[in-house]
Amino acid sequence: MRILVQKFGGTSVDGRDCMLKVREKVLVGLNQGYKIIVVLSAMHGVTSNLIKMASSWAKEPDRAEMDVLLSTGEQQAVALFTMLLKEKGIKSRSCLGHQLPIRTDPTFGSARILDIDKKAITDLLKRYDVLVVAGFQGCDCTQRITTLGRGGSDTSAVALAAVTQAELCEIYTDVEGVYTTDPNICSKAQKISMIDYEEMLEMASMGAKVLQIRSVEFAKKYNVPVLVRSTFSNEPGTLVTKEKNSMEAAMVSGIAYDKDQARITLVGVKDEPGVSAKIFEPIASANIVVDMIVQNPSKNERTDLTFTVPRGSVKDTLKILGKIKDDIGAQDIFHDDNVCKISVIGVGMRTHAGIASIAFATLQKENVNILMISTSEIKISCLVKEKYTELAIRSLHEAFGLDKDVSKACESPLA
Ligand code: ASP
Ligand code: MG
């Protein structure tokens, strides 16, 4: 049995006309001889409206009941879409998460998928040509309904593709694929034809919001090829797959950015064992995610320590630091909200030297000061003043040859 998973997001199922376009995509798959698992999101705006409704109903809506409520968005979409399939005589039925079942842990609002009954699905696929599955939802071991977090239908689709060993998981959306950077900032952004899972994780975690991060982690773990493409065109889209030979890979695949950053500096804390632990333990216990960290010992057994947190966490972080300030011997604490992290991403960095120096020279040419730097095997991130975001992105995009057709990016600028 050849299986294809096709997932359609909220803007693709936004009313009957859109769903007719979705039906055409499903027909294409059927004509190619596939059995199809269609995964749908709720219609555009429905989930957000349900969240608003709940918060006007109760101050702190019960988390479990919240999931019962939110899952109704997808329930509507699958029922209506299956009606359209049946109108064409297609052997199909809708399936809710708990009917399959898609088993999750009981973390209401951000549950993780634990298991999907493969046999139940393949049995259904023997009887039906198309299964229309409600994305974003599952159930825990006591049959309570759970949801997977915003954008969770992507993860439902990839998980279903993984257990059924589908040939491909198509993610249909309202953009034509993954771009080298945000096209709203850089008009020269190019669509990427193929991207590695790890690169995609970096792009997704930094604002390239095409796929839920968890879905990419899942795809990487189970080696599911994911094709991101548009419901409203016939363009080929972007294939997210495992690393190409990094010698052949473009040095840089994309430039991502994250404006949700704030920088906090502790001046002159004691330079002795245990100080970092004293600082970051209470921050972690408060569930605050620390991103970049730089420590720079100065004179007299003192060190400056700078790190970044999401902007919404600055107040809480400062409160925590206020409590431990004397203990760690901090002479002063500064913070700055007007910063942005720009990241140059590419698996090709593993085998090409000199990428960081090109990035730094490019920013220097534009007179952009770098406030912090962090690197990994496939990423160089620079924190800059927020007002330089556009300038930094555009100049790096050009410097790494991304303004041109991406398939040729590996030729410049070291070549
Ligand atoms: N309907 C859910 C949301 O809006 C899940 C999804 O669309 O993937 O977040
Ligand atoms: Mg989405």
The strands making up the biggest β-sheet line up spatially as 3-6-2-1-9-11-12-10
Helix content: 25-40%
List each distinct ligand once.
Answer: aspartic acid, magnesium ion
CATH class of the domain at 3-244: Alpha Beta
The percent range for strand residues is: 25-35%
Unreliable spans are 406-415
Mean pLDDT: 93
Task: Report the CATH superfamily of the domain at 3-244.
Answer: Acetylglutamate kinase-like
Main structural class: alpha/beta
Q: How much is the radius of gyration in Å?
A: 24 Å
Q: What would your notes on this structure say?
A:
A hairpin with a 7-residue loop joins strand 11 and strand 12. The chain is of the alpha/beta class and 415 residues long. It has an 8-stranded mixed beta sheet, with helices on both faces. It has a 6-stranded antiparallel beta sheet with strand order 14-15-13-16-18-17. Magnesium ion binds next to loops.
Ordered list of secondary-structure elements with their pairings:
Elements (H helix, E strand, L loop, with lengths): L2 E6 L7 H16 L3 E6 L5 H12 L5 H25 L4 E4 L6 E3 L8 E4 L1 H10 L2 E5 L2 E3 L5 E3 L5 H12 L3 E6 L20 E3 H9 L7 H10 L3 E5 L7 E4 L12 E17 L4 H11 L7 E5 L4 E8 L4 H15 L3 E14 L9 H11 L6 E5 L2 E7 L3 H11 L16
Helix pairs in contact: 1-3, 2-3, 5-7, 6-7, 8-9, 10-11
The protein binds aspartic acid and magnesium ion.
Question: Short description, anyone?
Answer:
With 415 residues, the protein is of the alpha/beta class.
What are the defining features of this structure?
Carbamate kinase, globular, six-stranded antiparallel beta sheet, 26% strand, single chain, eight-stranded mixed beta sheet, 34% helix, 11 helices, binds magnesium ion, alpha/beta, binds aspartic acid, 415 residues
